[in-house]
Amino acid sequence: NAGVTQTPKFQVLKTGQSMTLQCAQDMNHEYMSWYRQDPGMGLRLIHYSVGAGITDQGEVPNGYNVSRSTTEDFPLRLLSAAPSQTSVYFCASGAYYQPQHFGDGTRLSIL
Amino acid sequence: KNEVEQSPQNLTAQEGEFITINCSYSVGISALHWLQQHPGGGIVSLFMLSSGKKKHGRLIATINIQEKHSSLHITASHPRDSAVYICAADYGGATNKLIFGTGTLLAVQP
User: Fold this and answer.
1) pLDDT digits (tens, 9 = 90+) for B18-56
2) Which of A23, A26, A31, A27 is nearest to A6 (CA)?
3) Does A97 sit within 8 Å of B42, measured CB to CB?
4) Contact predicate A70/A51, CB 8 Å
5) Which of A18, A66, A93, B31 is the most exposed, having the fewest neighbouring CB atoms within 10 Å of its CB?
6) Which residues, in sequence order, are bridge partners of residue B27?
């Protein structure tokens, strides 16, 4: 049972480039979410999904796009990378009213 | 403004000490989560509680709904407990949306 799998683990981009952070879970969880973690700040919610075909914005959605075509996958797209998006990104999944399961994170640097 | 406050931000303890980390939140919640993050590592859920007290091994989590306050206790601390401990308030109910504290960095020295 792999849990929540994030790829890649590390990535360096140039300003203006686009990329997709992948997230997959094998626990049949309806709820999935993306967070970013920055020094001195708590994890902040970027986007979340309560089921296939349903997504919504979190606290800091600007510059990011998501889709949820299957229960298993919830990719996060950076449309035009900016240095302010340098961060560690975590994907999480969970069943309602249950603790969330987190991936190992993606460390992203934008030059 | 972060609606979840943790204290202390940093904590150094000697092996064997009893440790307490505190978390306060601003409005009513459906649940309070405690998570652990090792340096450079992933995030693991320790507890989810909506009332009373939970215990797992040397870890104990309590919550006081009236005072909007939760504590995480570690008994007989060990160097392997060194990590960042994060509390998160679940305001979202069916959406599982969490608001996170900034974390407490714990270092347990042998």
Assistant:
1) 999 999 998 778 899 999 999 877 899 999 999 999 999
2) A23
3) no
4) no
5) A18
6) none
